[in-house]
Fold this sequence. Notes:
Blueprint: H1 9-14, H2 18-21, H3 27-43, H4 50-57, H5 62-72, H6 77-86, H7 93-100, H8 109-138, H9 146-155
Amino acid sequence: MASKTEKTILEASMAKYIRVLRNHNTLKELIAAYPSLKEKCLSYPFALIDKEWRVFLDLSNLNIEIANIRAVIALSYTELIEKAIKDPSSLTQEETLLLLARFWTPKTDAERKMTWELLCETEEIIMEKEGAAFYTSRNPAFLPNELEAFRTRSKE
C-alpha cells in the first residue's frame, strides 16, 4: 500500500495537541522534546518539571488553566480534580467540559475539523505500518482461494 503521507505516527499524533493548534508550541519543538520527555516519564515521571508535564500531556499553561477554572468555578485545580474523583455526578456541565478539554477553552470548529483530519491520518499511518502485518498474519487462516474470492467480490 503506497503511503499518502510522509508523517510519522508521532507527527500526526502531536499535531493534534491543542498547544500546536493554537501556536503555543510548534510541532517541530514538540517532536524535538519528545525523546527526553518520554525518557523522564518512563524512568521517573516526577522528574518532569511543570512546563514539561504540561507539554507532554497537552495541558494548558498555568495562566490559561487558572483563568479557565475561575471562569467556571471558585475552586482550585486540586479541588476540582478532587471533586471529579470523589463525586463526578456533582460536576456541572461547564466543569465537565473544562476537565475534558484539559483546562483549555473548547475547540473551535476549525480546530475540531483539523483534529478529525489528523485522527484519520493517524489511523491511516497505523494501518499502513501495523495493518499490513495484521492482515499478513491472518492470511494463512483462510482456506485455499477463499481470500482471493473475498477480495474479488469486494472489487465488484
